[in-house]
Each structure stands twice: as C-alpha cells, then as structure tokens.
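Step 1: inspect the first sequence and its tokens.
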Amino acid sequence: MNFVAFERAKQGTGASRRLRNSGRTPGIVYGGTAEAQAIELVKIEGLSVAEAASASGQSESLIKVNIHRGLKRLAAIVE
C-alpha cells in the first residue's frame, strides 16, 4: 500500500479516533535520538491525482511534486 505521511499537532485517543473516522491512520515515528513524532497516514494507492489531493488535503500540483521526488529517491536507491 502507498501512503502519504503528515506531521500532526494533536495527540491522544480523541484525536486518533477523529483521524480514523475521517479515513486517515494515526501513527508515531520512533527512532534515533530524536523525540517520537506523531504523524497521520493517508492511503493513496489506486487513487487518481485529484482523489489523492482531496484525501490528503494537498493540491494536485503538490501531489505530483511529491510523487516525482519519491520516484527520484527510489531511482537513487536502486542505482
């Protein structure tokens, strides 16, 4: 599955429940020496650019830029 991750400001049970009810997935990123970061994930697999923009709250242009950047990073890893 493909997701887009966003930093989220609100934490806690109520905030997580509201995210799940809106079709998003709450999460926490742990690692290294940095503090844990609350995130929200939006599933974009199988969606058109317009649908992904609507689901993530981003513009269609930003979705296209993020896809391009992701493909560029993936190509650099594979090479």
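Step 2: inspect the second sequence and its tokens, then contrast the two.
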Amino acid sequence: MITSKSSKREIKDLQRLLLSVGLMEFTATSKSGKWGAETQAAVLAAYTQPVSYTHLRAHETLGSISYDVFCLKMGGGG
C-alpha cells in the first residue's frame, strides 16, 4: 500500500496512475512525488469506486490462481 510515508518514486507512480484514470487533475503538484491533500482526495475517491469481480481476478497473480485451483481440486474452498 502506498501512503504518505512511501518513497517519492512510488508516490509519483501513484499520481501518474490517478491522473490517467481521471481521478486527479493535472496541476503543478499532481506529479510532484509529494503526498498532499490532492493525492489523498484522489486515493479516497478511488476507494469509493465499484470494481467488478472480473477486474479483481485480472489482478491476481499466477501463484494465487494456482493455489485456488489446487484447493478446489483437493475439495477445499480456495
């Protein structure tokens, strides 16, 4: 999780992502790498957006999916 204590590079990457999906406006500070009120508001807005089950599955790792399949084959719930 990226927070105000994350590295400047991580915060810049997050800001670029928030800009690309339209949750942040492009301003002088929007790609500064500093955690400010604008970044905080965009992150909170992102958490209130509904996400589909398919979208969540698309971000799973191969290891996670393999484990789920293994559990199902063994009779577990995954």
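Step 3: confirm your contrast with the notes below.
The two ends are 24 Å apart (CA to CA). Residues 66 and 78 are 10 Å apart (CA to CA).
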